[in-house]
Amino acid sequence: MIRPLYSLLLIGAQPFLRRKLRRRGAAEPGYLHAIDERFGRYRTAAEPGALWIHAVSLGETRAAAILLERLRERDPSLRVLLTHGTATGWAEGERLLRTGDCQAWLPWDTPGAVRRFLEHFRPSAGVLMETEVWPNVVAECRARQVPLVLANARLSGKSLAQARRLARLSRPAYGGLAAAWAQTEADAQRLREAGASVQGVFGNLKFDAAPDPVQLAQGRAWRAALGLPVVMFASSREGEEAQFLDAVRALGDAAAGIRWLIVPRHPQRFDEVAALVAARGFGMARRSQWAAPPEDAQVWIGDSLGEMALYYGLADCALLGGSFEPLGGQNLIEAAACGCPVVMGPHTFNFAEAAALAQEAGAALRVGGMEEGVRAAIELGMDAPRREATAAAGLSFAAAHRGAADRTAEAVLALIRG
């Protein structure tokens, strides 16, 4: 009885969703693309039998890219349907498409929209990346015998508590999956408690990502030429940049010899973050306006997409965005793989095991708050032997945890072949 009620609530909310999409589209035009697809109405032709991969946003799409590379090594003829929920996910996903592939929005989780989606594309199987489990999507796939799995799966303690509160809705959804392949043993245990059939603990796909060598080399060359410590605030989130800038300003002369690089997590906030920097009186330069980092600007804004390896190569160390507010933290694996030491705040529950392992390996250090984090980053940036040891630990940490991509690719192909 609970799923029909949930569906009615979603159907009633559709006018508000359209309004929200129009509002977001004012800042990010990508949200205005093919709005009808959000409601299960598709105009593009689709040949049945493709492997469907749902990667809701940027991070999940990057994980999907790693998996896709291994799948195509094993089956070059594989056709893929990529679906997303955010404009950044869509933009990243476009780069992954090959002849015969499709890209679409996953519809709002109402029975009619999901049915139209499945009838239009008729995928051979579905792979949901990381956390995206929707009750009607799972139920409709089961009804059509489309095997649906959760790959690179993670579930935080907070999300498990929410699933328990909504157990009559969430338990059938998790239980309706053909399999879940967890990142960690802790994720596996929580997923089982939520009702999922965990068929393997494969590790985190993001350990198998190789940083762009050209970008990394360019960033390191800029850092060497600059001769000044560079501290990066990586994937910063709303509410954190103001704290960061105030902490830098409070340091006064102690911060004068540092160059500060802020790379916001969400591109629609680039202008907002630039305004925060300007309001505090810092000299500023935006990546979109320079060909090489200008030494005369104290704060640089990384307002570009797809250049994280460049930024990590440029930085002596990085503060981890999302960890200084109760947001769960962002992915620190890419920083480690680039040899960039990480300073984490107290909130890393979305990547709890990776954060703990990085700290244990000496690739990252934990602080209690922003002011302590900024001071720790300065100390690390100015202590060359310690910085180099932490960077080497990061490279070893990243290398030691590879292998999830091969394990997941083999499991996906076995799923397709039945």
UniProtKB/TrEMBL annotation:
Active site feature: 60
Xref: PANTHER family: 3-DEOXY-D-MANNO-OCTULOSONIC ACID TRANSFERASE, MITOCHONDRIAL-RELATED, 3-DEOXY-MANNO-OCTULOSONATE CYTIDYLYLTRANSFERASE
A GO term for molecular function: Kdo transferase activity
Protein name from the UniProt record: 3-deoxy-D-manno-octulosonic acid transferase
Keyword terms: Cell membrane, Lipopolysaccharide biosynthesis, Membrane, Transferase
Catalytic activity: lipid IVA (E. coli) + CMP-3-deoxy-beta-D-manno-octulosonate = alpha-Kdo-(2->6)-lipid IVA (E. coli) + CMP + H(+)
Broad enzyme group: transferase
Tagged with keyword NADP: no
Role of this protein: Involved in lipopolysaccharide (LPS) biosynthesis. Catalyzes the transfer of 3-deoxy-D-manno-octulosonate (Kdo) residue(s) from CMP-Kdo to lipid IV(A), the tetraacyldisaccharide-1,4'-bisphosphate precursor of lipid A.
Name of a matching Pfam family: Glycos_transf_N
Principal place of residence: membrane
GO cellular component: plasma membrane
Organism phylogeny: Bacteria, Pseudomonadati, Pseudomonadota, Betaproteobacteria, Burkholderiales
Record domain 3-deoxy-D-manno-octulosonic-acid transferase N-terminal: where: 34-209
Domain of life (superkingdom): Bacteria
Family statement drawn from the similarity comment of this UniProt entry: Belongs to the glycosyltransferase group 1 family.
UniProt-annotated location(s): Cell membrane
